[in-house]
Structure formats: structure tokens, C-alpha cells
Known about the structure:
By secondary structure, the protein is an all-alpha fold. It has one domain. About 70% of the residues lie in helices and about 0% in strands. It has helices at about 10-30, 40-60, 65-95, 105-130, 150, 165-175, 185-215, and strands at about 145, 185. The chain has a two-stranded antiparallel sheet. α3 runs parallel beside α7 and α6 (about 165-175) crosses α7. It starts with 7 loop residues before the first helix and ends with a helix. The model has no long low-confidence stretch (mean pLDDT about 80). It comes from Candidatus Saccharimonas aalborgensis. This is Putative membrane protein.
Amino acid sequence: MTVPHISRPELLVAFGALVAALGLQSSIWIMNGNTAYSPHTLIMLTELTFIALMSLTIFRPSLLTTAPYRIVSFILLGLISVENVSSIATILHLLVTNSGLVGYRLLGTAIAIFLTNIIVFALWYWEIDSPGFSGKRWSRYDKDFLFPQQIHSHIFQAWRPQFIDYLYISVTNAINFASADTVPMTRQAKLLMSAQALISVTTLALIIARSVSIIGQ
């Protein structure tokens, strides 16, 4: 089982996506200041600290293979995922209790949640298959996803998936609730894709639909 080398440009793109996810989460709690309880502030500060630590890997990619950075990358993605689900739960609670949400603010929150969902799952897919920030495979299998280029390896001999390829999987799964051309091969990949699809359905069907309804009133 070989672990592919991650180039600095690929690492920069992935790190930029990570920062964007944190920015989107910050915008959610800024737009809904009345829902920003102290635990969320603590989580955001923790995420900022971890991202600052992860930024060192851009200058020293060899740090990715060390145990502390493996743990930090895993915890960071977990925190962002939990915070995004928490945002959905909080907004749904406000919808059910008719807490006087403004339609445009609710729509902006839904879009931020949806985009965060795409980014964080792209990072998860990259993490388990590439193997992302941790520099380590979390699966005993060599492939969690099977790309068309890997099926036609005689044509794409030097090809390997990069972060953008996993971002594409995440976008198509979030919109179509299924990957366009890539097959999940392991249970963990299938569970992650299922979780992302459920979050997308909840965001699109409930929050965005309700926000449009409020705007139209």
C-alpha cells in the first residue's frame, strides 16, 4: 500500500478550502448572532488554533507524516463537521419555534451551510483516499474511491487523484446525491457520501425552501 506524495500546490489549494470552510462557519454565527452560544465560540477558537498549526505544513510538508499533525487534521475535520451539523440543528429549531427569522438571513445561512458541507466532505474524501493532511491512510484498502482514470490506467499511466478531484466528487454528491463518475469502494467512503447527501437534502429541502417562502411573504 503506497501513500502518494502531496505537492505544495495541492496542499495550498486544500488549505485554502479549509480556511474558506472556517470563514463560512464564522459567517453563519455572525448572521445569527442570537444563536452564538459560548460552546460555538470555543469550537471556532479551537479550529483557528488547529488551522494555524496546519499552516506550518505548507512550508514543511514532511510534518504531515508526524503523529501530532495526523491527530490535529483528524480532530479539525471532525470539529468542522460537527459544527456544521450543529448549525443545521439550530436553524431547524428556530424554524420550528417560529423565532422570527429574516428570510434573506436564513437563505444566506443555508447557502453557507451548503458550501461548508461541500468543502468539508471534499477534505474528508481527500483525507481517507489521498491521504490528505494526515499523510496517512485511514483505511486498510488501497482505494476508497475508483476513478475512471484508474479503470483506464493504460491510458492515464501517471495519473493520481488530487484534491480538486475529491472536490468534484463532493459537489456532484451534494447536488445529485450521487457521484457522477467515481465509485465509492469501501464502507467508510459510502458512509461519508451518505452523510453528505442527507445534510444536503436537509439544507436544500427544508432551510432553503423555507427561506424562499419567508422572502415571498
